[in-house]
Design a protein that fits this description.
97 residues; mainly alpha; 3 helices; 77% helix
């Protein structure tokens, strides 16, 4: 019991300590950094930002579409099952399927 508690404590400390260290300064990827530093006009950094936001939004959109589709399929199946049970309750001699 005591060794399990010590093991959990050690895992927590090893997981938390790297987060407490001073973070290094972040920099852009080399190509993005060069392109934005040498940009003559201000539209190029805006275009990079728009492309990054587009790449980040695509997984969210895909998950939302899959989730809504599964939700609608479940609701449709539940309503069909409810209709079948109502019909069976009115006429018990007919089979359900």
């Amino acid at each position: 019991m005591r060794t399990m508690r010590n093991l959990i404590l050690a895992c927590l400390l090893l997981g938390i300590l790297p987060g407490l260290a001073e973070p290094a300064s972040c920099s852009a990827c080399p190509m993005c950094k060069t392109a934005t530093e040498t940009a003559d006009d201000q539209s190029r950094p805006v275009a990079y930002m728009a492309s990054i936001l587009t790449m980040l939004s695509m997984p969210s959109i895909l998950f939302a579409v899959v989730g809504v589709t599964l939700y609608r399929m479940t609701r449709r199946e539940e309503s069909q099952l409810a209709d079948l049970t109502k019909a069976h309750d009115r006429n018990p001699d007919e089979p359900l399927v």
